[in-house]
């Protein structure tokens, strides 16, 4: 550790690596139900269903090979409760992180991820009993409390170590690592479950969350040492003491428009991913394994492109314009899925590209419109509103689909069409939000769309103006040594020292 210096580029990228590993395992776990949706909702291989009636609620799965016998509505609750928990917890979590610091956050929330994934896995032992759904929902609740909040800490760490540097690229890399977990889930979970069974599969996910906990320990050490070397420890503590929850009321209009843009865009992506495997199987007739691969293509593309897109956006800017163009280009995806039989891989690859652009442009915009001291609170509030939207969307999708296993094929396809139209409506709302975001941002100086070159030129111009002002003051317009002089000295970037 003594050989590492916080001012070195390698140090901050080492921090970034362990920061990325925080959520690798948790994102693997997050979409495991999506890959295993048929296993969660399947009842065909039950051997002791009640003979007294045909109602699906009377089916018991104690002796089935791996099925859990959930309805589609119950299955979607696994995603909805995750989203609702985030919506409630992350605001307080973000404020807590701003007050107590990153190191407290990574320990607390990585622990919740580990406990939640373990509880969820343990719930599978209770199949065939009335306790199965409550225990698994409780596990998702704990998991949601940790994972959503852990993402906030991750973003806050990234924003601190890469401020005024490779910010969008760093955000893209963290997203890529998270999506690597999701991609491996879509590629490996189905095969692992077929070979080792559901129980071992769920516990394997919990073990990956344990890897995140170990990364949290290492990250805490690196962050503590680095902040002390940079001499920012005292400043960060001082700023955290001044922070009040009422600071939320002073967030600017561009921030709220970014929040709405994120919420509406993700309302289309995440509920689709949650049900994509089953949708592809139902409409296009693919087997379970190819369906999961096709659905996972969204994250495959995101994993590959996000870091590069982040680096490009760092150089050229245009975040607001890219966000709006991304929403516009997403419309055909849900249109094709609803009204055509174009190969689903075309649509999932297309959605993966637009999702990559959205993530690389929207989330890195938040540190540009709020202060560093309130970033955790801002991220928490954004995540909360995002998850409220996703939770509502998951419930709506579940209600549209209903008891799907007990309907004919034509009715199933009709319901899936309405699901795609609902997701399309959210994308249109995102277009409206990003349009107004660009209008407001332009009136306020265009901070979201400015390029790195223009930003550097503005900083040089500001430096020259401040130097000229100091020269004029020194020549007699304002003598710094005379009573009434401002006595303020300026840094090269124009910020006051005192």
From TrEMBL:
Biased composition (Basic and acidic residues): 459-472
Gene Ontology molecular function: transmembrane transporter activity
Function: Lysosomal dipeptide uniporter that selectively exports lysine, arginine or histidine-containing dipeptides with a net positive charge from the lysosome lumen into the cytosol. Could play a role in a specific type of protein O-glycosylation indirectly regulating macrophages migration and tissue invasion. Also essential for liver homeostasis.
Pfam families named in the record: MFS_1
Annotated region described as Disordered, given as residue ranges: 459-487
Localization of this protein: Membrane
Protein name: Lysosomal dipeptide transporter MFSD1
GO CC term, one of those recorded: membrane
Domain of life: Eukaryota
Keywords: Membrane, Transmembrane, Transmembrane helix
Membrane topology: Multi-pass membrane protein
Catalysis performed (reactions): L-alpha-aminoacyl-L-arginine(out) = L-alpha-aminoacyl-L-arginine(in); L-alpha-aminoacyl-L-histidine(out) = L-alpha-aminoacyl-L-histidine(in); L-lysyl-L-lysine(out) = L-lysyl-L-lysine(in); L-alpha-aminoacyl-L-lysine(out) = L-alpha-aminoacyl-L-lysine(in)
Gene assigned in the entry: LOC106069765
Bilayer-spanning residue ranges: 12-30, 77-97, 104-125, 131-155, 167-188, 200-222, 251-273, 293-313, 320-342, 348-366, 378-398, 418-440
Domain Major facilitator superfamily (MFS) profile, residue spans: 1-444
């Amino acid at each position: 550790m003594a050989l590492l210096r916080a001012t070195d580029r390698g140090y901050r990228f080492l921090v970034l690596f362990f920061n990325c590993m925080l959520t690798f395992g948790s994102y693997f776990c997050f979409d495991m139900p999506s890959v295993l949706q048929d296993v969660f909702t399947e009842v065909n291989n039950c051997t002791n269903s009640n003979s007294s009636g045909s109602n699906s609620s009377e089916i018991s799965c104690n002796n089935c090979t791996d099925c859990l016998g959930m309805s589609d509505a119950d299955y979607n609750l696994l995603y909805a409760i995750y989203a609702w928990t985030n919506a409630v917890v992350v605001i307080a979590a973000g404020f807590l992180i701003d007050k107590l610091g990153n190191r407290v956050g990574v320990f607390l929330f990585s622990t919740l991820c580990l406990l939640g994934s373990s509880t969820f896995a343990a719930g599978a032992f209770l199949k065939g009993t009335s306790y199965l759904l409550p225990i698994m929902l409780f596990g998702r609740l704990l998991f949601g409390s940790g994972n959503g909040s852990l993402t906030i800490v991750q973003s806050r760490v990234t924003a601190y170590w890469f401020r005024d540097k490779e910010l969008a690229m760093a955000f893209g890399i963290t997203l890529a690592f998270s999506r690597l977990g999701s991609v491996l889930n879509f590629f490996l979970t189905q095969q692992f479950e077929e070979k080792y069974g559901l129980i071992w599969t769920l516990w394997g996910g919990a073990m990956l969350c344990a890897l995140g906990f170990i990364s949290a320990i290492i990250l805490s050490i690196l962050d503590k040492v680095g902040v002390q070397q940079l001499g920012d420890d005292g400043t960060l503590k001082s700023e955290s003491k001044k922070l009040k929850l009422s600071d939320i009321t002073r967030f600017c209009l561009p921030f709220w428009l970014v929040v709405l843009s994120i919420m509406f865009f993700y309302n289309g992506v995440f509920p689709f991913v949650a049900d994509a495997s089953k949708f592809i199987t139902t409409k296009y007739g693919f087997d379970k394994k190819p369906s999961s691969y096709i659905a996972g293509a969204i994250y495959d593309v995101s994993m590959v492109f996000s870091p590069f897109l982040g680096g490009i956006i760092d150089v050229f800017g245009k975040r607001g314009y890219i966000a709006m163009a991304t929403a516009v280009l997403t419309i055909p995806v849900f249109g094709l899925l609803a009204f055509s039989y174009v190969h689903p891989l075309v649509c999932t690859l297309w959605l993966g590209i637009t999702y990559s652009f959205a993530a690389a442009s929207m989330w890195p915009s938040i540190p540009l419109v709020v202060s560093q001291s309130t970033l955790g609170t801002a991220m928490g509030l954004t995540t909360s509103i995002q998850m409220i939207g996703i939770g509502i969307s998951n419930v709506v999708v579940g209600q549209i689909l209903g008891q799907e296993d007990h309907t004919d094929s034509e009715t199933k396809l009709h319901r899936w069409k309405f699901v795609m139209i609902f997701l399309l409506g959210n994308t249109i709302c995102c277009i409206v939000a990003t349009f107004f975001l660009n209008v407001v941002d332009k009136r306020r100086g265009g901070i979201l769309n400015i390029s790195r070159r223009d930003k550097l030129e503005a900083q040089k111009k500001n430096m020259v103006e401040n130097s000229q002002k100091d020269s004029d003051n020194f020549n007699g317009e304002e003598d710094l040594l005379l009573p009434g002089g401002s006595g303020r000295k300026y840094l090269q970037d124009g910020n006051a020292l005192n």
